[in-house]
UniProtKB/TrEMBL annotation:
This is Nonribosomal peptide synthetase MxaA. Residues 383-607 form the AB hydrolase-1 domain. Signal peptide: none annotated. CDD domains: MupV_like_SDR_e (cd05263). PANTHER family: NAD(P)-BINDING DOMAIN-CONTAINING PROTEIN-RELATED, PROTEIN YEEZ. Residues 6-239 form the Thioester reductase (TE) domain. Coiled coil: none annotated. InterPro entries: AB_hydrolase_1, AB_hydrolase_fold, FAR_NAD-bd, NAD(P)-bd_dom_sf, NAD(P)-dependent_oxidoreduct. It comes from Paenibacillus helianthi.
Length: 611
């Protein structure tokens, strides 16, 4: 068993790294500021291993890392130090950045020296950004990184400058003391390849934030410029592989894929725009001109500091040493572009709901780039498709009721363009959603219980018309909107609807919900629902998708359900709906005394009706 001392383990990269390290025969001492907060964070992630993971309270910015005498003794037998500490904040002040990065480098290096002199340090692993100018050839540059005024690095941004000087200092100390050092240079880190979940909104999130506000009308740099990316789970796997090596000197590993395989910034913005259901920028502007614009005051509008453009580069990076460890095709197999749309949508979602709290009973995964929430169980899964003005999380209470009553699995997707799922352009809008049904059918080979609410019910009806769904499956339709009571309300020009939604107040949304019978009364509206709907319209992705689907259903859609077998359908109808009538032509209907959104407002009763 090897002992690891880890900094930055509670962060976006660190938690993923801990999960990977715990697969090895190790004992981890994790430097944290608060044991109680760290315990909660790892409990929520489901990786709290009390036998192998030990929290050590301290502070990277303090002498001796702020460790107590007792904790110093506990970590004195450390075999490997992994230093990944320091929050990403490109707008940090000189004092803040110096304290975290430079002082942090000094204190962790002193700790490494004491360990090496006591027992011999097997390896020091330092994680620092790919734009660092230092490598194995210039590790011994003889400058005092703490001396103010030197201009060895002509970088004004304190965040970047202190991180790079910390890189140099750690190299200097490893060379002087004589312990092995591995420096890992990842590009911009995004979320897991399994989920796309990107908790770190200060990196790529700055670009997403600018785009969603309509403030990215051009392509910075144009052809040849790139924004290299890596997922935090693949980065964690790479660090673990380096941890397993027997190093004898200083070795640098750059994790930027081959230049010809990395998409240009124009291609990246094209994918981002499609994911956000927006028009892509077409005009390229030189980086130096964009920086000049930012410095002239545009940064205050876009909220992107001019130094944030430093991550967009036309440099080439050597990666042979990384390929020797992971294989020649590792960069291709693990390309972020395979799930990049889901990353963009997740960041967009997080920027809408700053205090979002995901229900950890549901496991999150991706099918294609569509987010699926799942609860495992025995038997055929319940697959729930939500409607407009909602997303998958709104059906969590119903899903939990079904699971608790049956023990069966529950799958709830965020429909494309809504929730956390990216939009994708198709010639026929409905095909985007029917393709999802086909993908889910492939995952539920033994059949499933399909439940569609509102627009989700339309998707299932169309899947039946096209004979996608066979006899292994059952179908329940909740409030299928196929019989409009009054079409006049849909004749308002689309741009007027768009501005009405963007400018809607909480009171106007509530009046709409009650007036159209989505809920039978104010008391039946779930807590935070109105605030969530209001926030969702700050996203061009959700706003534009909602408008397109509303227009499609009200004007373009003419469903022909004459071939739908009535014996396959179980229909439940809330009779307080004032926009649609019960679809009697589809078969027998169970009527309930609720509004159109009754699966959201009455999940327990809805589960009983379904079962």
């Amino acid at each position: 068993m090897r002992t690891i001392f880890l900094t930055g383990g509670t962060g976006f990269i660190g938690r993923q790294l801990v999960e990977e390290l715990l697969k090895e025969d190790v004992m981890i001492f994790l430097l944290v500021r608060s044991k109680s907060k760290a315990t909660r964070a790892f409990q929520e992630k489901g990786i709290l291993n009390e036998a192998a993971l030990h929290f050590i309270e301290g502070d990277l910015t303090k002498t001796d890392l702020g460790l107590s005498d007792e904790d110093k003794d506990r970590v004195s037998n450390t075999d490997v130090i992994i230093h990944a500490g320091g929050q990403m904040d490109i707008q940090a002040t000189q004092q803040e950045a110096t304290s975290v990065f430079l002082n942090g480098a000094k204190h962790i290096s002193e700790f490494a020296k004491s360990i090496h002199q006591l027992k011999g340090l097997q390896q020091f692993i330092h994680v620092v950004g790919y734009m660092s100018p230092f490598d194995d050839n210039n590790s011994k540059v003889a400058i005092d990184v703490f001396k103010e005024g030197h201009d060895y690095l002509k970088i004004k941004n304190p965040y970047e400058k202190t991180k790079f000087l910390a890189d140099l200092y750690i190299r200097q100390q490893a060379s002087a003391i004589g312990y092995p050092l591995s420096v890992i240079n990842p590009p911009t880190v995004v979320g897991s390849s399994k989920t796309g979940s990107t908790e770190q909104t200060a990196g790529l999130g700055l670009l997403v934030a600018s785009m969603r506000r309509g403030l990215m009308p051009f392509i910075p740099g144009g052809k040849g410029y790139k924004l290299p990316l890596i997922s935090n789970d693949e980065l964690a796997k790479f660090i673990v592989q380096v941890f397993k090596l027997e190093q004898s000197s200083i070795q640098t590993y750059t994790l930027v894929q081959d230049n010809q395989l990395d998409p240009d910034i124009s291609e990246l913005l094209e994918v981002m725009s499609e994911s956000m259901n927006m028009a892509a920028p077409k005009i390229s502007v030189p980086i130096r001109f964009v920086k000049a614009l930012m410095k002239s005051g545009i940064s205050k509008i876009t909220q992107i500091p001019s130094d944030g453009l430093n991550f967009i580069t036309n440099r080439k990076f050597p990666n042979d040493s990384s390929k020797k460890i992971m294989g020649e095709d590792w960069f291709t197999k693990t390309s972020v572009m395979n799930f990049f749309p889901a990353v963009v949508a997740d960041l967009d979602y997080r920027l809408m709901y700053q205090n979002d709290q995901h229900n950890h009973l549901f496991e999150r995964t991706l099918i294609g780039n569509t987010v699926i929430y799942q609860i495992p169980g025995e038997g055929k899964p319940f697959i729930l498709l939500h409607g407009l003005l909602s997303d998958g999380e709104d059906l969590f209470p119903l899903g939990l009721e079904l699971h608790e009553k049956t023990g069966q699995p529950v799958w709830i997707p965020d429909l494309p363009g809504l929730g956390r799922s990216p939009f994708k352009r198709e010639k026929n809008l409905l095909d985007l959603y029917l393709n999802l049904v086909k993908e889910l059918l492939g995952k539920a080979a033994d059949g499933a219980h399909w439940i569609g609410h509102s627009f989700g019910a339309i998707i299932l009806l169309e899947a039946l018309v096209r004979e996608y769904i066979n006899m292994k499956n059952t179908i329940t339709l909740l409030q299928p909107p196929v019989a409009k009571r009054n079409s006049k309300s849909f004749n308002v020009p689309q741009f007027m609807n768009k501005w009405a939604l963007k400018l809607a107040t909480a009171n106007s949304i509530e009046r709409y919900l009650i007036g159209n019978g989505l809920f039978e009364n104010t008391e039946s509206i779930p807590k935070h629902y109105i605030a969530k709907v209001s926030s969702s319209f700050t996203s061009p992705r959700i706003l534009n998708t909602t408008l397109q689907l509303n227009r499609f259903l009200s004007k373009d859609y003419q469903g022909d359900f004459t071939k739908v077998p009535r014996d396959k359908l179980h229909i439940i109808w809330g009779d307080q709906d004032r926009s649609y009538s019960a679809p009697l032509h589809l078969g027998e209907i169970d009527v309930v005394p609720y509004g159109h959104h009754f699966p959201l407002s009455h999940p327990r009763e809805t589960a009983s009706y379904i079962l």
